[in-house]
Amino acid sequence: MLSRNAANLYWMGRYLERADFLCRLIEATVRLASLPASHGGAQAAWESAIQSAAVAPAFHARNLPVDEAHVGHFLTLDPENASSIRRCLEAARSNGRAVRTSLTLETWEAVNDAWHEIQRFGTATPDSPTLVRLIDGIRGSLLMFDGAAHRTQLREATYWFLRLGTTVERADNTARLLDVKYHLLLPRSEPVGGSLDYFQWTTLLRTVSALTAYRWVYRESVKPWLVADLLVFNRAMPRSLIACLEDSVWLLDQLAASRGRRGPANRVAANSLRKLSASNIDTLFQAGLHEFLLDFIAGNNRLGDAIAEQYLF
User: Fold this and answer.
1) Distance CA 84, CA 35 (A)
2) pLDDT tens digit string along 135-171?
3) What does the pLDDT look like over 60-90, one tens digit per residue?
4) Contact indicator for 213, 230 with CB cutoff of 8 Å
5) What is the pLDDT confidence band of residue 299, given thresholds at 50, 70 and 90?
6) Which of 16, 118, 154, 213 has its CA 20 to 30 A from that of 195?
7) How would you class 10 by CB atoms within 10 Å of its CB: exposed for 0-12, middle for 13-18, buried for 19 or more?
């Protein structure tokens, strides 16, 4: 496979996963913003959203109010924000068109449908009902893409590069979301384990579709250290950090086997997985969850750089 085709597939996977994450993030933020001001309020919720999406500097540079109308537009329909859902879907579709002959009809149509779905909403600032309809529509289209790719693509380089982009992006999103909740979201005046803390952790679990999984695994009320354990160390949880690393290692191994040799990306992924596997929730909290997550995000970026150097240039 040509490196430019590999790059198109890899970034197509990343952009679609980023769009899905933003949909989940906005849906969760709408829940958090409904709390009264004494429990954080809307501004704290929407500030956490732009922090989780890693677009705070770009948003604040515009000197706009931190509220549903402005943050919601910035994260969904804003054509000037390179990380908005609209721009992510546009980039994913562009990458997909470049490798159209490598995609099944069902996979391509799912991407194309997602793009046409968001075009229906234009670029104007959406009101609350419109924002909810937009998120629901895009999430449905992205689920169709995931199902189409899983059911119809051959298990070869095309599928592996698509999934590799997805899993690298997913690891980054989970780590950033967990860090924002633990390090930034809870007001200093609120107690850890209080009603606000409980609601926020529950909302975080909903964001990554893990609330039911949490109840199955732990069978007790939501506790911060157990949420962290689920989203960092539980291999059965698809969006956990360790599951994402295992997927990255496996996908890179498949690509290496098809090429007949391993490279720097295989070693970076394997070392990251080995390091995380040697830790546990107790040692993680002793060292500091925030510090661990910053280190993980930096390591995930190094993995992305190694993948680019090995396959995409």
Assistant:
1) 25
2) 999 999 999 999 999 999 999 999 999 999 999 999 9
3) 999 999 999 999 999 999 999 999 999 999 9
4) yes
5) very high
6) 213
7) buried
Domain assignments of the chain as residue spans, ordered by start: 1-153, 155-313
pLDDT digits (tens, 9 = 90+) for 23-35: 999 988 888 787 6
3-state secondary structure of 194: coil
CB burial of residue 198 (10 Å; 0-12, 13-18, 19+): middle
The Cα 89–Cα 117 span in angstroms is 10
Amino acid residing at 8: N
Choose among 22, 19, 13, 26: nearest CA to 114: 19
Tell me the C-alpha distance between 70 and 65, whole Å. 7
- Name the residue among 133, 131, 116, 139 with its Cα closest to residue 21: 139
Which tokens is 96 given?
């997909």
User: Residue 197 has what pLDDT?
Assistant: 66
Distance of CA 282 to the CA centre of its chain: 25
Helix (H, G, I), strand (E, B) or coil at 64: coil
How many C-beta atoms lie closer than 10 Å to residue 90's C-beta? 18
Closest CA to 24 of 204, 253, 240, 234: 204
The token pair at 190 is 């609120």
The model's pTM: 0.92
- The token duo for 124 is 């104007």
What is the C-alpha to C-alpha distance for residues 200 and 180, in angstroms, rounded to an integer? 11
Separation between Cα atoms, residue 71 and residue 64, nearest integer Å: 9
pLDDT average, residue stretch 203-217: 89
The CA distance from 161 to 139, in Å, is 22
Distance CA 18, CA 24 (A): 10
Q: At what angle do helices 211-218 and 195-207 cross, to 10 degrees?
A: 110
